[in-house]
Amino acid sequence: MGAQQSVNAGKVCTSTSPTCSARRAVLPPMRNSGATFSQIVGRISLKHPSLFGRSEKLDVILDKGINESNAVIAFRRPRPEWLSQQSFVIQLILLFTLVLTCSGLSNQHTMTPEIAVHGFPADNFTRSGSRGINLSRLSLGVELNEPSTSNWTSGTSVKFEHIRPVNNEGRSIARDHDGFPLTCSGNLHDNMIILKQESGYADVNDNSFLKVNLQMEQGLPLVPKSLTFNRVKCAVSKGMKLGPTFLVTSLTGGSIVGDMAPYQAFAIGGLGSVRGYGEGAVGAGRLCLIANCEYTVPLAKHLEGSIFMDCGSDLGSACHVPGNPALRQGKPGFGVGFGYGIHFNTDLGQIRVDYAMNAFSRKTIYFGINSGGGS
């Protein structure tokens, strides 16, 4: 069709969608730059097998990634005899995002770019460009993970979040380039206390699987000017064998009611939602509905081929996001992507190469590795 092919790079996918179960990276076009970037990645892990002499376990993990850092303190204690669960985990989580860049002798600290909601679609929606808006996020909380019972798992957490938009120079900003607020409060930052409940169901056998994941977040008005909201997201995926072939379908939906900042919107488009589009290039709204379907056919002993189709919509809810960022950036609110892929099953995992095309006949190539092994 004479379509322009692009190769995009992005973050590792962690979506619950089965069509994106592999941890995949999308490679972006290389750009010439005179700046030198310092990218430090590493992990420090400290473990104590019996903290108080009663088999209590303490884990301290410090991760430094390219785009974010993560500190987790986890305490595990064996169950008392009067409790039915096998164990419980309490985690103290401190999250912050930071990218260190160096140009000449000067250092500049910037936060994670916010392109999913505030980015503009480029190259016929195959990628999202930055508007110079970044998010600084500080999170502190406690998490309780209950052990699985039959096919069910569940977890509950309470955390405090302090979110501050900053520009590329690291200065706090309250409004975007068009003068619309970036926070719910209209100030330089938002504070919220979030109670989160997550439940999962999985029924897997040799011929089929069914997986359900339900997440509910409730903003609690426990501190002055904190956000009060309810955010629900549910993902259901079903896979079944059809002779030597395998069919996987999934449906994901979400809703937000109450207070809301623009950065909380459901971003649609990109790896994990609608392939062939840039991150958030389809739309961003208070509601979302995403459907994925992938059909896999064996080609050789360690080789598979697949065809897939993704579609997603904000269900007309973009206008209910403060400032209408998706509408101002010209995002359509509905998108369809389809394509095909080749999967190599190796001892190290499944290597995937997917070729997707969006509704504007623009193409994107995705590379990924599923460390869990082949299908």
CATH superfamily of the domain at 111-371: membrane protein fhac: a member of the omp85/tpsb transporter family
Number of helical elements: 1
What's the helical proportion of residues? under 10%
Number of strands: 25
CATH architecture of the domain at 111-371: Beta Barrel
Based on Cα principal axes, name the global outline: globular
Unreliable sequence segments: 1-39, 82-110
Order of secondary-structure elements: EEEEEEEEEEEEEEEEEEEEEEHEEE
How confident overall, as mean pLDDT? 79
- Could you tell me the strand content as a percent range? over 45%
Specify the structural class: mainly beta
Q: Would you state the CATH class of the domain at 111-371?
A: Mainly Beta
- Oligomeric nature of the chains: single chain
Q: What is the third-level CATH name, the topology of the domain at 111-371?
A: Porin
Radius of gyration: 22 Å
The major sheet is characterized as:
18 strands, mixed
End-to-end Cα distance, whole Å, is: 33 Å
Structure description:
This protein has 375 residues and is an all-beta fold. It has one helix spanning 325-328, and strands at residues 5-7, 23-25, 36-37, 42-48, 57-64, 69-78, 87-96, 99-103, 106-110, 112-113, 120-122, 127-129, 134-149, 152-166, 190-204, 208-220, 229-242, 245-258, 266-268, 283-285, 287-300, 303-313, 334-346, 349-358, 363-370. The protein has a domain at 111-371: Beta Barrel (Porin), CATH 2.40.160.50. It has one helix and 25 strands. It is globular and about 60 Å long. The model is unreliable at 1-39 and 82-110 (pLDDT under 50).
